[in-house]
Amino acid sequence: MDSSVHLDNTVMQFGDFTAIQKTDLKIESGEFFSFLGPSGCGKTTILNMISGFLDPTQGDVKIGGQSMRGVPANKRPTSMIFQNLALFPLMTVSENIEFGLEVRGVSRSERKKASNRLLELVALEDSGTKKIAELSGGQKQRIAIARALAVEPQVLLLDEPLSALDLKLRQHMRTELKAIQRKTGITFIYITHDQGEALTMSDRVAVMSAGQIQQVADPITLYRDPHTAFVASFVGENNGVSGKIIEVNSAFVTLDCGPLGKLVGRAQGNLSVGQTATLFIRPEHFRLQAEDGMHSLQAEIQEVNFEGAYLTLNANTPANQALSIQLGTHQFSDALKKGAPVSLSYREQDAIVIVGADHV
Ligand SMILES: Nc1ncnc2c1ncn2[C@@H]1O[C@H](COP(=O)(O)OP(=O)(O)O)[C@@H](O)[C@H]1O
Ligand SMILES: [Mg+2]
To answer: What are the DSSP E strand ranges found in 125-192?
Structure first.
């Protein structure tokens, strides 16, 4: 079955305010796809257009190749899990799961069969007769998934469903959600402001800012090859140093970074001499010992934090810019202390230069 979702030149305006800029995006059948972006960037608005709670101002939403124009929410092959789960507190677990089927006139015996199958899927076989209030946070989460799947949607829409859980449970539920998606094979569209969630679960991620998709890619590509300064700084931790491009040499460019000297990195897109740009270096790409071909910058240590498997240093450059550095614990020495000078080296292929000076 084709359960792809196509945002076909979709725009959403609320009065004069454009919440979603023109977007053309195809989510494949059976994909775990996430929209990642800060609060207010338009994630829920996109889900609402797919589910039918909102009609796009321009363009169309196609599910399985079919236009959804004029198709009301309850007639779409989608199911939604809300941020607050919205379970019915006075019903039992089974009644919650069966609710959507009952509304559709499915017989009692068929409903029972479906809820038993779904309870098994979410590993809560023995909980059918429990009241919602008797469940833990993680169990409620799984019941919300079972209830959404009961109506056999082609597309499951999830609006920050883990945000109410504590950290440990949230991390555990990531693995469970991914496993459930694999077992059912349906398209999952997941929205979150938490990059860890998006990166661990998704086949592909769309990074959004202010109503606009900045980049769509698989998690590793997003991390290694951010296309914009926003993506470079929103996905994972990053250090951005700004400067002016003074040399372009095939895939590499040299920036004049004032008091930090001349620094080299991999070019993102077509860059030219004279442009203002930002050189991004991830904390884990700094080394204390320079090897052949590495570039270095000087800083002063502000803070050393021991995190177990690794160390983090906060350092300040002569231009008073804060840098974050991550080192293996084996690199610890007494010389690493507040106020000490430190030479930070990196390989040019690990730094990426993106045009523009602004980043988050
Ligand atoms: N019904 C509405 N009327 C007017 N503005 C809205 C409406 N829904 C959302 N917005 C605005 O659209 C923007 C995106 O909102 P939303 O999609 O909820 O963001 P997110 O889910 O990413 O936090 C926000 O600025 C929000 O205030
Ligand atoms: Mg939202």
So the answer is: 155-159, 187-192
pTM across the whole model:
0.91
Average pLDDT over residues 330-345: 92
Instruction: Please provide the average confidence, as pLDDT, over all residues in the chain.
Output: 93
Between strands 78-81 and 155-159, the pairing is: parallel
Structure confidence at residue 359 as a pLDDT band (50, 70, 90): low
Q: How far is CA 193 from CA 24, 151, 235, 300, in A?
A: 21, 28, 10, 33
Torsion sign across C-alpha atoms 44, 50, 54, 55: positive
CA distance 220 to 64: 28
Last residue of a domain, one of 162, 194, 229: 229
Tokens of 152: 């056999």
Q: Which ligand is nearest to the CA of 15?
A: 1
- 133-139 average pLDDT score: 87
**255 touches 277 (CB < 8 A):** yes
Q: Is ligand 1 within 6 A of the CB of residue 44?
A: yes
Alpha-carbon torsion, ordered 65, 74, 140, 172, to 10 deg: 10
Report the distance separating Cα 159 and Cα 156, nearest Å.
10
Domain of residue 217, CATH code: 3.40.50.300
Q: Which of 10, 13, 14, 50 to mutate to test the pocket of ligand 1 (most atoms within 8 A of CB)?
A: 14
Interval 149-207: pLDDT, tens: 998 899 999 999 888 778 888 888 888 889 889 988 999 999 999 999 999 999 999 99
Examine the domain organization and report whether 270 and 217 are in the same domain.
Answer: no
- Which residues, in sequence order, are bridge partners of residue 301? 315
The stretch 5-9 carries a mean pLDDT of 98
Nearest alpha-carbon partner for 85 in 146, 151, 127: 146
Domain enclosing residue 243, as ranges:
237-355
| Amino acid at residue number 166 | D
Say how many Å lie between the CA of residue 55 and the centre of ligand 1: 14
